[in-house]
Amino acid sequence: MADDKIEQLVKEGRRFLHDISNKVLIGSGLGSHVLASLKKGKEADEKMLDKLERSMNALNLIADMIKEHRSYLISLLEETPSGTSSGRTGNGSESPPAAGTPSSSGT
User: Fold this and answer.
1) Domains of the chain: which residue ranges?
2) Are 69 and 48 within 8 A, CB to CB?
3) What are phi and psi of 91, to 5 degrees?
4) Whole-angstrom distance, CA of residue 81 vs CA of residue 55
5) What is the pLDDT averaged over residues 71-95?
6) Cβ distance 92 to 83 under 8 Å?
7) Stretch 57-81: mean pLDDT, rounded?
8) For every residue of 36-102, which 3-state class applies, written as one string?
């Protein structure tokens, strides 16, 4: 039974890292493109501002995803031996919030 829980946690961790990595690449790529254009002396236009805004949205989403995942991990530590957790309903086997949840969408 413990091995199943460990395997579940590893899969959830890998999914979380995959989701975060995608957002990092979006934010970094868009931000780098804007920075390179500005360094070349190009004036900011609507296209660059849109890229910068999308980059910031990706970074804000990453921050939200990390907060949600931290809360999930803390809830796992608060579980009692019977499988319930303090302050949570359910059986303690809830999955972490998925990436792009309504509270953190925008890219």
Assistant:
1) 17-75
2) no
3) -100, 10
4) 43
5) 63
6) yes
7) 91
8) HHHHCCCCCCHHHHHHHHHHHHHHHHHHHHHHHHHHHHHHHHCECCCCCECCCCCCCCCCCCCCCCH
Cβ burial of 72 (10 Å; 0-12, 13-18, 19+) is: middle
What is the structure's pLDDT at 84? 52
Residue 19, SS3?
A: helix
79 forms beta bridges with 85
Identity at 47, one-letter amino acid code: K
Instruction: Read off the tokens for 97.
Output: 């919030």
Compare 23 and 95 and report the one with higher pLDDT.
23
CA distance 35 to 44: 10
* Among 99, 13, 88, 12, residue whose Cα is nearest residue 63: 99
Backbone angles phi and psi of 85, in degrees to 5: -120, 150
Q: Are 78 and 85 in contact, with CB atoms under 8 Å apart? A: yes
For residue 85, the one-letter residue type is S
- Token output for 69: 């995942």
